[in-house]
Structures are given as C-alpha cells and as structure tokens.
Design a protein that fits this description.
This protein has 168 residues and is mainly beta. It is built from no helices and 22 strands. It has a 9-stranded mixed β-sheet with strand order 1-4-7-10-13-16-19-21-22, with no helix packed on it. Strands 3-6-9-12-15-18 form a 6-stranded parallel β-sheet, with no helix packed on it. A 4-stranded parallel β-sheet has the order 2-5-8-11, with no helix packed on it. The protein starts with a strand and ends in a 6-residue tail after the last strand.
Length: 168
Amino acid sequence: MNQEPDMPDFNRVARDVVVAPGARVHAFANLYGCTIGPKTTIGAFVEIQSGVTVGARCKISSHSFLCTGVTIADDVFVGHHVCFTNDRFPRSTNSRGEPQGPEDWVVAPTHVAKGASIGSGVVILPGVTIGEGAMVGAGSVVTQDVPPRTVVAGNPARIIRMTVEPGG
C-alpha cells in the first residue's frame, strides 16, 4: 500500500483490509474489513467500514464516511465530507432498553454505479442506488434512487437535467 509521500503513517488499516496495487491511502484514514480497488485514492480522515467495496480508479475525498452496506463501482468520485448511511430506523437501544447489537437492525445496501460523481457535503440515505454516470450536487440529501446520467441537487435531491454524455 502506498502512503502519502513524506508523511508518517497515522492510518488505522486493519489486517482484514484488501488494498489493491497502486491504491493510495492518505494520513489519518480508518479502514477495516473493506476492499479498495487498484489506483484508487483514499483521502485524509476517511472512514471505511467492514464489508464496503470501493472499485478501481476511484477518488474518496477527505472526511468522508462509507458505512457497512456501501458498494462503490469503478471510476467514482466522492467529494469531501460525504456521509453514507445504512440504517432506515436508527436507535441507540432496542425494545428491551439495551444497547442495540447487530441482531437489532438490518443494513440497507447502497450502490454507486460506475462513473458517478458525488459532490462535497452530500448525505446519502440508506438503500439507494446512484446510477452510472450520475452527478449529485454539493450539499444534496439523496433520499431515493438517482437514474443513470442525470444531475440531481437539493434537499431532497431532485433531477436538474440529464448529463451531456456518460461520465460528464
């Protein structure tokens, strides 16, 4: 794994993380139980949880959070401070008043298709798919699926227009 040049290793990369050749992980990243594709860059202060897959040639910008249940295809851009979520009904405790455990909730998977771009400060609610070549405007809240090759923005994110061509 390539670290940022001239930067001490301040990352927490668990032993069960798979980092493909040519991938870069910048300082202060926290990765566990995930897979990072070749030639992908993970920015500073990014957390990627167990079960997440990030494809090839992606850029995950600083301060982003990718939780369990997220799949990122190849050539995806994730802007700064993007937050994925995976629990439709988040609670601290279960019906017995005890702290929730894995048996108390269901992960709602989120998929980001090839070539999609997600602007900075976006929040993506659980269970959505962002289509191939789609673009999500900065600061948007994605509450439902984003069709391929569309531009969405706002809270909630709404279709603004179709992109001119795949990937842009």
